[in-house]
Write a structure and sequence with these properties.
Length: about 210
């Protein structure tokens, strides 16, 4: 590839590297990208730092968030594509309640394609899929072999579930506080029962 093509590839991969919280995993990805594109890893780090500074400054000007799939949903989808064995740990009935409808349709499509024909590959991503997701998947394909996709799939499912449960508990706590303030004992008992059921359900899930 010429320099222009490599820079274009880097601009596609860079946002993906910025989302990686694990420093060890991030180092593995940077080394792989450095090898594939022929850029010094030190330069990659410097460019990532420069991007972070720009994002920090711009965040004070606008808090508008780009619409799309959550980070955990994108990584989960990647894990299902790059390692088909991960499809065995996914239960669609349980997944439907904890991920967005868009992500659920994509996961469902991956599972249907895998069972009926053959797994979806990076070279054959459906044109109707979220553009940001497609860019992320193509970027991650550079480090596909160095990644523990089984661990990532499990971690993503846990994070997604935890996020949903936390949101539900916060909503219940607010409702409980309102019921206490208004003196509505019947509503309060109902909400406390719902909270207890939710927490018991989560404990049982963790034991599995």
């Amino acid at each position: 590839k010429d320099t222009a093509s490599k820079m274009q590839a880097w601009e596609t991969i860079k946002p993906i590297l910025e989302t990686i919280q694990d420093p060890i995993l991030g180092g593995v990805y940077r080394r792989r990208v450095s090898e594939v594109l022929g850029f010094e890893e030190a330069w990659l780090l410097a460019d990532l730092a420069k991007k972070h500074q720009k994002m920090t400054r711009s965040s004070t000007k606008s808090s508008k968030k780009e619409e799309g799939l959550a980070e955990e949903e994108q990584w989960l989808i990647a894990a299902l594509i790059f390692k088909a064995e991960n499809l065995k740990i996914v239960e669609l009935s349980a997944l439907e309640d904890i991920i967005s409808s868009e992500a659920f349709k994509i996961v469902q499509e991956i599972m249907n394609q895998s069972s009926k024909v053959r797994p979806i590959t990076i070279g054959e991503l459906p044109s109707q899929w979220n553009k940001t997701l497609v860019q992320t998947l193509r970027g991650l394909s550079l480090v596909e072999e160095e990644t523990d996709w089984g661990r990532i799939a499990r971690d993503c499912l846990k994070k997604i579930r935890t996020r949903v449960i936390t949101k539900q508990l916060l909503a219940l706590n607010r409702a409980i506080q309102e019921a206490e303030n208004s003196g509505n004992e019947q509503k309060l008992l109902q909400l406390l029962g719902e909270k207890k059921f939710l927490m018991q359900k989560e404990v049982e899930h963790d034991r599995q």
